[in-house]
């Protein structure tokens, strides 16, 4: 009798188990997959099941493109689990559950990975998020009804600021120099009362890139008609965009001639479209922020080119030039370099502070100086070694012949010769001296041979007036002829 009762109880228990789902495959319901705030990406998962059963927890393994069991739960009263090795702050992860290793899966439930960008120009934070697992063959199949956006300003509390069915959201009216934190809560279709939170972006600081406190103009130097410019930028600056402005007047207006992108704190730029041999140019550098707006507070001072002008008057060349950095008028010094013929430039004067100079070129008369003598200036601030070259300016020396009116061939070494001087070296030369009866008393084709007052027979000529005829050909092929009187005097 007792055996029959035991059999009956077993049968009743089996019927009850079958009616309650025990003994058949039980599919647990995965309701939440949230990233734990403040963690390194730990993931909390939570589930429910109609009938108590074992739970096997699976997580993606992207490296080998399969599911792996990360743990199992045998205690029927435990309905959540934290995965401390998910690293979900930097990537999406996906989970599923089974009641046995071979039973059907729960829904494949992903984490939500949130990222943000800050548009300081519009004072907006743009949020984007995803639930997909790149390169993993078993993609999530949870449908999310919508997403809620939560924001915390400074040390305040999180508040819900909006919701969307999209996977992006823009937070407007962001305050400058303020800390913000935010996360997304995903609402699944199969568990609408549940929220699965994304990673939290904590203490996002809303700040524009640091502008330069100063931009100092250093060099405006001319080389072969190109203006080379250099500016020193505050090393703490985080900006990389600049515009070079130019004017032909110290008072402006200034026009943008180049846009520059550089991370260097010594900005170097060439202006090849100027004509610095003809005029002065004025420059300044202006920084632009990431919104492409000018930072007027950091605009550089004006720097200008040095324009040199040279004029000739007989045996003297007059040099005049404008000051370096006319805007700020610093203490500057200048050096003058001169080029004669094919020789290398030679320093002839300086350093000094004036902006004009008279160069006596009498010593160049009769040399191979040619028809041009050229100059350039190098200007420096007294506190700087940065050189600022001017344009090269040349004086065109017209061929000149200097013929004395008298000489005294008395042998006292003073004015003993009829010495003709030239501002050039003649290519051809003919000198003939006649007495008053038109007889030739001296003749030469050597410009280095001066008349010593002797006639062709070697005797000194009498004092009195004589007639000379001079014919010379310059280096450029120009013929010069001169006639006149020369007086021989014996004191």
First-to-last CA distance: 177 Å
Domain unit count: 4
Mean pLDDT over the residues: 89
Highest CATH level, the class of the largest domain? Mainly Beta
Structural class, please? mainly beta
CATH topology of the largest domain: Immunoglobulin-like
Strand content: over 45%
Strand element count = 37
Largest sheet: 5 strands, antiparallel
CATH-derived architecture of the largest domain: Sandwich
The oligomeric state is single chain
Give a description of the structure.
By secondary structure, the protein is mostly beta strands. It has four domains: 23-207, Immunoglobulins (Immunoglobulin-like); 215-303, Sandwich (Immunoglobulin-like), CATH 2.60.40; 308-396, Immunoglobulins (Immunoglobulin-like), CATH 2.60.40.10; 401-488, Immunoglobulin-like (Sandwich). It is 4% helix and 45% strand. The protein has one helix and 37 strands. The strands form ten sheets. Strands 10, 11, 13, 14 and 15 form a five-stranded antiparallel beta sheet that branches. Strands 25, 26, 28, 29 and 30 form a five-stranded antiparallel beta sheet that branches. A five-stranded mixed beta sheet has the order 32-37-36-34-35, with no helix packed on it. β13 and β14 form a beta hairpin. It starts with a helix and ends with a strand. The model is unreliable at 8-24 (pLDDT under 50).
């Amino acid at each position: 009798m007792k055996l029959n009762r035991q059999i009956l109880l077993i049968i009743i228990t089996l019927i009850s188990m079958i009616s309650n789902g025990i003994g058949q495959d039980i599919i647990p319901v995965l309701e939440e997959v949230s990233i734990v705030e403040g963690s390194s990406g730990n993931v909390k998962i939570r589930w429910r099941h109609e009938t108590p059963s074992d739970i096997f927890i699976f997580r993606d393994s992207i490296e080998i493109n399969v599911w792996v069991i990360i743990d199992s739960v045998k205690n029927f009263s435990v309905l959540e689990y934290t995965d401390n090795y998910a690293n979900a702050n930097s990537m999406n992860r996906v989970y599923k559950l089974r009641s046995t290793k071979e039973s059907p899966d729960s829904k494949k439930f992903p984490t939500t990975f949130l990222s943000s960008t800050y548009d300081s120009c519009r004072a907006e934070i743009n949020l984007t998020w995803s639930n997909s697992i790149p390169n993993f063959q078993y993609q999530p199949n949870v449908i999310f009804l919508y997403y809620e956006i939560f924001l915390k300003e400074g040390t305040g509390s999180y508040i819900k600021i909006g919701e969307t069915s999209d996977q992006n959201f823009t937070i407007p009216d962001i305050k400058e120099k303020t800390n913000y934190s935010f996360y997304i809560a995903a609402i699944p279709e199969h568990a609408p009362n549940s929220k699965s939170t994304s990673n939290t972006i904590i203490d996002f600081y809303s700040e524009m890139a640091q502008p330069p406190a100063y931009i100092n103009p250093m060099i405006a130097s001319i080389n072969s008609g190109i203006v080379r410019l250099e500016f020193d930028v505050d090393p703490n600056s985080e900006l990389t965009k600049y515009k070079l402005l130019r004017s032909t007047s110290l008072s402006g207006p200034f026009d943008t001639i180049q846009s520059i992108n550089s991370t260097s704190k010594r900005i170097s730029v060439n202006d090849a479209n100027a004509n610095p041999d003809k005029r002065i140019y004025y420059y300044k550098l202006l920084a632009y922020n990431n919104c492409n707006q000018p930072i007027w507070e950091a605009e550089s001072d004006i720097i200008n080119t040095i324009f040199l002008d040279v004029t000739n008057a007989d045996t003297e060349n007059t040099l005049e030039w404008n000051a370096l950095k006319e805007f700020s008028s610093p203490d500057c010094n200048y050096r003058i370099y001169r080029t004669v013929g094919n020789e290398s430039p030679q320093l002839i004067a300086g350093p000094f502070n004036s902006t004009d100079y008279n160069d006596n070129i009498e010593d160049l008369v009769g040399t191979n100086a040619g028809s041009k003598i050229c100059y350039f200036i190098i200007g420096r601030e007294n506190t700087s070694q940065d050189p600022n070259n001017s344009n090269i300016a040349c004086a065109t020396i017209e061929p000149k012949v200097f013929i004395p009116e008298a000489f005294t061939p008395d042998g006292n070494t003073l004015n003993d010769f009829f010495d003709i001087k030239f501002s050039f070296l003649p290519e051809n030369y003919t000198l003939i001296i006649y007495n008053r009866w038109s007889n030739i008393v001296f003749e030469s084709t050597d410009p280095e041979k001066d008349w010593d007052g002797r006639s062709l027979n070697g005797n000194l000529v009498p004092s009195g007036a004589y007639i000379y005829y001079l014919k010379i050909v310059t280096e450029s092929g120009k013929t010069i002829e001169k006639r006149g009187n020369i007086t021989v005097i014996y004191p």
